[in-house]
Design a protein that fits this description.
Layout lengths: L8 H18 L3 H14 L4 H13 L3 H13 L6 H14 L4 H13 L3 H14 L4 H20 L1
Length: 155
């Protein structure tokens, strides 16, 4: 075992708290799960898995604005391996807060990073139908649609 792979006590404790949070979340005790996930994040602030679980736990408590703040942290730390999980939660945030541009922007990034350009294009088009003057999203739409067209052409 490489020395860099040996878990530190902090990693072990944060992992145990995350696992316990998952247990309580699966049992429907979201308040207890929230406390455990938050504790794991305090110990390891860049723990993407715990952050996503925390955000999803907040969603289950019908707190989409709070969940959005947690999902934002996933993107701030660059936890690309958690974007697929964040994507699912961000769709729920956008359903609850349909005019939240920040949620849309993160969702588009998650779709783009995962290579699901077609879904990103659809979300852009839906947004632009409601917000036709949003130039930044229109530009993102053009870039994503062009990349999607290139990918189809290259296949």
């Amino acid at each position: 075992v490489k020395a860099s792979r040996v878990p530190t006590p902090r990693i072990s404790v944060a992992g145990a708290l995350n696992n316990a949070g998952t247990y309580f979340s699966n049992k429907g005790d979201y308040k207890q799960a929230e406390i455990l996930f938050a504790s794991a994040i305090v110990i390891l602030p860049r723990y993407g898995n715990a952050i996503v679980h925390y955000a999803n736990c907040l969603l289950k408590q019908e707190r989409p604005a709070d969940a959005l703040v947690a999902f934002e942290r996933v993107f701030q730390i660059g936890a690309y391996n958690r974007y697929a999980e964040a994507r699912d939660g961000l769709r729920l945030v956008l359903e609850a807060l349909p005019d939240n541009r920040q949620a849309l922007t993160m969702l588009l990034e998650a779709y783009t990073v995962s290579g699901n350009l077609a879904s990103a294009v659809i979300y852009c088009e839906d947004w632009l139908a409601k917000h036709p003057d949003d130039q930044e999203i229109a530009e993102k739409h053009a870039r994503i649609a062009n990349a999607s067209a290139r990918r189809k052409r290259d296949e």
